[in-house]
Amino acid sequence: MMPAARESLLEAAYTALARRPWPTVRMVDVAASAGVSRQTLSNEFGGKDGLARALVRREADGYLAGVDRALTGPTEPRDRLTATAEWTTSSAQDNALVRALLTGCWSERLPCPPLSAVPSASAAPAQRRADGPLPSPADLVRDRAVAVLAGPGASRADTAEPARSCELVVRLALSRVAAPPAGNRVADLVRGALHR
Predict the structure, then answer these.
(1) Which of 19, 146, 160, 196 falls between 20 and 30 A from 2, CA-CA?
(2) Buried residues in 118-139 as b, exposed as e (16+ CB within 10 A)
(3) CA distance 139 to 58
(4) Can you give the pTM of this predicted structure?
(5) CA–CA–CA angle 59, 5, 123 (5° rounding)
(6) What confidence tens digit (pLDDT) does each residue in 82-121 have?
(7) Is the dihedral of CA 4, 8, 13, 19 positive or negative?
């Protein structure tokens, strides 16, 4: 299958999920919305579970690309963490799948694929990747940020302070997602917490 057709199917599935709970999303409707046959969809994803894994993987990859941009943008580590917190908060507020990946709170409206790898018989490399392990919340932000802030080849001692700062920032960002307070922006909270 062409990558554009795969992306069209994933976008059709995402749109369907925005309109109704995942258990009621029908493969035939996703295929029709993408302009392909149900058999083409089945050949690409193997079934609804494969489509769910691919959809979650796509949303995780989009989120991680934003994390990478935030971590490589500003020069000061505090500003990088602030940008990461802002991206995390806005992404999780705008995307239920990213929010579920970050918080572990999967509602009955969402597909809930296991984070561990599943057996894959797919000939499509993109689907084999989607069938691999899905990223955990630690993989999504904290471990990535520590690696960037501490630098390549950093010792465990060199990563202690960046790890503490990253953990604090992730917790602040996720608390804003789980229970958004009125008032302070996440950037103000992060800057205040990192100045202590």
Answers:
(1) 19
(2) eebebebebbeebbeebbeeee
(3) 15
(4) 0.85
(5) 85
(6) 898 889 889 988 999 999 988 888 899 999 888 888 888 7
(7) positive
